[in-house]
Specification:
Length: about 475
């Protein structure tokens, strides 16, 4: 199965100096930022033996690379090992796409798509196997082509285990169906052979799945909360690219296509607010604390000159994956560039969040995007922090004269806070006002205000936990 990764929160220098233990905890934690890795598309990131591995498509579509790092954040600067290059001509000398690294029966394997030298779009899926234990330094041998029922365009293979069975899922053009690709599923008999005829899980028919091209591709699986979820990508690889979702009961016969329920709307789309376009081809991982993460690629701009296939700037991005009260994933929106944002719950309202409601900042529930904030250095004092809603990256949380908090343009000390260890719980944190350090951000009857702390209840209302 795929594994995942995550990070801790960022603290201000003033607060760290006041609390050495809190300081050491934060200072020792690398902060992940987006884009995590530039010009790497179709990224697969997973945790294995305490570290992180990454594979992705490179803009030249000519080689297979692996990164390995001890932390998720350090993948961004990790040295890349080129483990395979396409031949000069013949089979597999065309486009090299969407590799994935998998540990199967004690051996490392790479699944990847490759075209031919005389027809780069004659794309099929192939499997390499490592000769030794270290995938970055090993020699790799070609096991062969993945054997599917049709010798047609085939790509985006992923392998996972579910209830003791090893499955493979992939995208392929099926003869007789007038579209580009569908997504299929089958148990594996060996790394290159299916154990039974595949099930066709999804065909592009909805309006948002057929923009530019009729495409369902890039499956990824996640088992949580009594269900098995399958994300997939749809439409052309420009700003119309997006993620869809299938859901099945965890104990269902997942080879029966009727047990899979397709969401009628995409679950992750381009966002002009955060300037991320064409989010797609995802994988799942966990951060260092075990929180689920979504890995995907996206561009920083909408307009592309020429064929999107040859625009190199699909960057690898990550963000927390949250779950609704019914146990289904809530993908929110692409969070944009910069440090990963958090969601915060006041200690006295554990199941509610600090959230933006128009101009107001309240404590409650709502769309994930309204509850995510990025901590950035204050413009007036780099040791302090300002709190930025992801949907309004040019704004800050600003304290008004009546001590309520609103979303507005940066206003000096009114948008500057000193981050400290939580007043009521050492696992949490509190934000003191930079202009009035004896006053703190607090939940006061469901509204975020800046007030002094006088009681145990006040300390709980001024202590926040990352949710």
């Amino acid at each position: 199965m795929t594994h995942l990764s995550r990070r801790l929160f960022l603290g201000g220098a003033t607060a760290l100096a006041a609390c050495p233990t809190f300081a050491r905890t934060l200072a020792s934690t690398a902060i992940s930022e987006n884009p995590l890795v530039r010009q790497r598309a179709d990224a697969q990131i997973f945790r294995h033996d305490g570290g992180y591995y990454m594979m992705a498509s490179v803009p030249e579509y000519d080689r297979l690379i692996i990164r390995r790092a001890p932390t998720l954040a350090s993948l961004s600067t990790a040295e890349e090992a080129v483990v395979w290059r396409r031949p000069a001509n013949g089979r597999m000398a065309g486009y090299i796409w969407a590799p994935e690294l998998h540990f199967i029966d004690g051996r490392w394997h790479i699944y990847f798509a490759a075209g031919n030298g005389d027809d780069k779009f004659h794309v099929r899926t192939y499997v390499l196997r490592a000769a030794s234990a270290d995938p970055l330094t090993s020699k790799w041998e070609l096991l062969g082509q993945l054997e599917t029922p049709w010798d047609t365009f085939t790509l985006d293979s992923t392998v996972f285990e579910h209830r003791g069975v090893r499955y493979i899922s992939w995208a392929q053009h099926e003869p007789g169906i007038g579209n580009n690709t569908n997504v299929y599923l089958a148990p594996l008999a060996s790394p290159t052979k299916l154990a039974r005829a595949p099930a066709r899980l999804t065909v592009p028919t909805l309006e948002w799945e057929i923009q530019g091209f009729k495409v369902n591709e890039g499956p990824a699986f996640l088992a949580r909360n009594g269900r098995l979820f399958m994300t997939y990508s749809a439409s052309a690889t420009d700003a119309r690219y997006c993620l869809g979702l299938l859901t099945a009961a965890d104990d269902a016969d997942i080879m029966n296509p009727t047990v899979w329920i397709k969401s009628q709307q995409p679950v992750l789309v381009s966002s002009a607010a955060t300037s991320v376009y064409g989010p797609g081809h995802n994988s799942f991982t966990v951060d260092e604390q075990g929180h689920d993460l979504l890995v995907y690629h996206g561009r920083d701009y909408q307009k592309i000159e020429g064929d999107p296939l040859f625009d190199p700037n699909r960057h690898t991005r990550i963000q927390r994956l949250y779950f609704s009260l019914d146990g289904t994933p809530d993908f929110g929106i692409p969070v944009g560039n910069g440090a990963l944002p958090d969601r915060w719950s006041p200690l006295d309202r554990a199941n509610q969040f600090v959230r933006v409601d128009g101009e107001r900042v309240t404590i409650g529930v709502g769309p994930v995007a309204t509850t995510q904030f990025r901590q950035v250095p204050s413009r007036t004092d780099a040791s302090h922090v300002s709190l930025v809603p992801i949907e309004s990256p040019a704004s800050r949380l600003v304290v008004r004269s009546d001590l309520t908090v609103i979303v507005a343009q940066d206003d000096g000390n009114a948008s500057s806070f000193i981050k400290q260890q939580g007043l009521a719980d050492a696992k949490g944190f509190s934000f003191a006002s930079a202009s009035s350090p004896a006053s703190y951000l607090r939940n006061v009857d469901g509204v975020l205000r800046v007030e002094t702390v006088k009681s145990t209840a006040d300390r709980a209302s001024a202590t926040f936990l990352v949710s």
